[in-house]
Amino acid sequence: MPIFQDQNGMAIKFFIQKDIPDDIQAEVCETITSLGGRVEAKVPRAGYILVQPGTSEEERLRTCWSTAERPERYFVPYTYVEACKMNGMLLKQIFVHDGHPIPMHIDSSIANVNVRHALSTRIQHSGGDPTASPQSARVILADPNTEIFQHLVKTHQSETNKYVESYLWVKKCIERGAVVYTPVVYKNPGGRRAGEERTHFTEEDEERLCDWIASKIPYKETGGRTGNRLYRQLCEMANNPDYGWVTRHTWQSWRERYKKNAPRLDIRISGIVERKRPALGEKGQYGYVRKPEERMKRSKKKVSQDGEGATVAGPSNDELDFMSEPVMLAGPPPPGVPGALPPTQLSDLVYPQLDLRFPHENISPEVAAARQNATEEEDDESEWQIRVNDGTQPQWAKRKAEPEEEGPIKKQHTESQASPHSEQSGLHVVDQAVQDIADEYRFTVGEVKEYYDKCGDVDKTRNRFRKMREILSNLPEDDPPALAPNSSAAT
């Protein structure tokens, strides 16, 4: 059956606005006729009036011929004919209310220009008016993926004649063939429903409430029985099996129960306290927390004094005694302390990846022989003797005679005050191990450190340079090179 014919096979009537260009009118007339419709010279009682939107003639036609007595007379743009042809069906005029187009507003949240144009055309083809302002519109179309959509919903949800819909709502209505607004659902506003019974307090509830208050605030004069936190803590105990009863009421209800019946409940609480006799400030009572740890007082003492009389502050003797560690002596463990670890095993526990053995332990014969031939001597205690009272100044503290001026000598002497021991003590553990390997096997620190950076293992580095020193020690002495005869003759 042709598109522009009704169920009885009668042709649907069309009236075309007179001031539309002739070529457009001719094309529209041809399409209507081919689809089974008929073009009338006068406005029909039931049918479609094809207009050009936005013109004064369209406004005149609507004013003259749009009446509630003719609900089957529709005003549509002349492009409606082509739209029906493309959809293969007669587009229903669903966006009509009380014989007038439903005013709609396309919100700016729909930013795509093509989408806005297509949306406006679809609304017009289905009988609606997409040119309404936000104030006069019955339907506001917006993008549901923006924040402004939720704002519009909250703003207009109390207005009975205004709806906020998604831009997809237009397509859904056209497919259904009817206007269906998004339904509202009931949201519980809170409070008890009319006629609904509330959970009443029982004698057992009051007894448990009094036990709780007696355990937390046994003496009323300390205060806090009408505060919020006491009863919030009570309801936080709901996960405890012994306190499953707290869920019968909210913490506000427990608080109000005591507040409104305080004179009567205080007597019961006093009786419970009299039986249990808890001490004031006992652990677990409300308002009492753990006492903070006392901080050790640091006293400033004059530990050293330079030539100008400046004092240096340091920790007290008590702090030094507290921070000092016991010195572990080698030997059998004391009685009553089974399995005490010797110092070597203790060092292995602290630094398991390092070989902390002293240089004189487990030394091969070749290394011992090489050490005897070394020009450097090991440090002994006599090298770092100190001056006592007016005694003789030690050899290491005497200033060397230099031909330079007095200024640089003083500066150099001042800079060299730090002992090698203090410099080595500031080294990192790994750097100290590298230094020890270099000193033990008489290689440069740079050579040892370069190999250690490659392998990353102190033991492996120590073994490598031990083997290298053994190889060098076992090499035979080289004879002086003999001069060639021809070279002596040349000279």
CATH C-level name of the domain at 92-182: Alpha Beta
What is the chain-wise order of helices and strands?
Answer: EHEEHEHEEEHEHEHHHHHHHHHHHHHH
The averaged pLDDT comes out at 77
Name of the CATH superfamily of the domain at 92-182: BRCT domain
Distance between the termini: 129 Å
Low-pLDDT sequence parts: 306-313, 322-331, 343-347, 374-380, 404-426, 487-491
Strand order of the largest sheet: 2-1-3-4
Task: Give a short account of the largest sheet.
Answer: 4 strands, parallel
Report the count of strand segments.
9
Organism: Hermanssonia centrifuga
Domain TERF2-interacting telomeric protein 1 Myb: 201-261
Keywords: Chromosome, Nucleus, Telomere
Subunit structure: Homodimer.
Task: Give a description of the structure.
This protein has 491 residues and is α/β, with parallel strands linked by helices. Among the domains are: 1-90, BRCT domain (Rossmann fold, 3-Layer(aba) Sandwich); 92-182, BRCT domain (Rossmann fold, 3-Layer(aba) Sandwich); 203-276, no CATH class; 344-370 and 426-474, no CATH class. The protein has 19 helices and nine strands. The strands form three sheets. Strands 2-1-3-4 form a four-stranded parallel beta sheet, sandwiched between helices. A three-stranded parallel beta sheet has the order 7-8-9, sandwiched between helices. Helix 4 (113-125) links the parallel strand 7 (104-106) and strand 8. Helix 7 packs across helix 10 (262-276). The longest helix has 17 residues, at 458-474. It is flat and about 135 Å long.
